[in-house]
Input
Amino acid sequence: MDQNRGNWYILTGLILGLILGIVYSWVISPVSQVDTHPSLLRTDYKDIYRLLISRAYQANNNLPRAEARLNLIGDDEPALALAAQAQRFLAEGGDHEMAVILANLSSALQSSEEAENPPVPPPGTAAATNPSENTEENGENDPDNPATSTQEPVSSQTPLPTESLPFILQDSSPICDPTLGESLIQIVATNSSGDGIPGVAIQISLGTDPIEIFYTGLKPELGLGYADYSAEPGLTYQVEIPDSGLIISDIEVPTCQNESDESYWGSWEIYITHPN
Output
């Protein structure tokens, strides 16, 4: 009888303890959910956060809001972080459309930074002056004479959207550079000022069979207009810029020799630019 009574006491104590624990955790001191700051997220969750911001930017085209959201992550250079994520996404076999969304936001951020911080003219360059001041100093202000009119001139520095401008081929040639470590088809896209253009779509084909579409600007450490593709010796490639209709054919990995007369496979280099 004493043994049975002891077992019942233990069981009763466990049930009372369970009930008291539930009451304490649910009523007296329930768990409170606290939002985590984006900068404290794990790396994979930060990638998801950047992708969501990029998709939101694609939908509303609100760059200031996208910048504010990206700043919460705490990246030193948000544009480069987006480009690096797009490159990782492609390397892991991810959807090209998602990589393009990331690259587009990266390109928009870089263009915004360039617009806010224009290049400083070299020393000795004459500063722009107000035409009305010049004409007043010369005592000339003839409204019928375009050369002396004080009407505000139309700026010739207004940038044109790159999407509307076709690319032309500057150069396409084999190169022998043993420091590359692999055979690459390297593409560099620039504007008329020589600045790299990110986000340019490039299609690689074998004859009429497209292999892959990739984009400039996904390796910003090599230039905003840079892109490359790992080529295989013995194949003949074709590079096409779909937005411009530009096609570069007969691209093959060249055979090169180093200083010791040892053969190795080279690469191919392509430069495209806007004509004006």
